[in-house]
Amino acid sequence: xxxxxxxxxxxxxxxxxxxxxxxxxxxxxxxxxxxxxxxxxxxxxxxxxxxxxxxxxxxxxxxxxxxxxxxxxxxxxxxxxxxxxxxxxxxxxxxxxxxxxxxxxxxxxxxxxxxxxxxxxxxxxxxxxxxxxxxxxxxxxxxxxxxxxxxxxxxxxxxxxxxxxxxxxxxxxxxxxxxxxxxxxxxxxxxxxxxxxxxxxxxxxxxxxxxxxxxxxxxxxxxxxxxxxxxxxxxxxxxxxxxxxxxxxxxxxxxxxxxxx
Length: 261
Prior knowledge:
Elements: H1 16-36, H2 41-59, H3 64-87, E1 91-93, H4 102-118, H5 120-124, H6 126-144, H7 154-169, H8 173-193, E2 196-198, H9 218-260
Antiparallel strand pairs: 1-2
Helix pairs in contact: 1-4, 1-8, 2-4, 3-4, 3-9, 4-8, 6-7, 6-8, 7-8, 8-9
């Protein structure tokens, strides 16, 4: 079951960059969500510009595969935001929009999950971290359907089961574990300050839904799967088309030169 987990009893390298990315994003999430809690649309737009600058700056130190994964993650998550929030109404932001900082924010969150997943600390203590995450998220999910909280969370329990399948069977368990920490962080802050709110009853199956759902990290497992599976084919397609355009331009240059002569 744990064949995709890192090997044990191996010394892993600690890169400062991975930890700096994580700390930077965790801090940015806390600051930006609190700023947006009582901010205007204009402030949201300004925060969006700043978030894009931050994301692009962070990507300068990554290879083309990671950059492409982040680009796909941003595109996929943005479409998902509009579908789940604007169209389905599963949750809503203060202005019933998708704030300008959300798309680049998804990129920063995804990059943070990758950075933590490859960090020496996560690789060394992968199984212990997995036990901790399963215990915490599992307890949270059980509490949500126990009948004690005022707002039930059947959706969270369902998402937790999906998260477990990804964690035990998926090809990127370290990314999923890391995603739990950063997504839980942003969800707890965002809902606490009122930046967005999840509806009590989700609109598709009519299940109770927490604010936030306990297994919300499962959505980032899907984002990761789409990003990883789509990055290589898209890079190959761009490479082939780039070579085709280069060859075409080279064939056309002599003809243009002959006609001018």
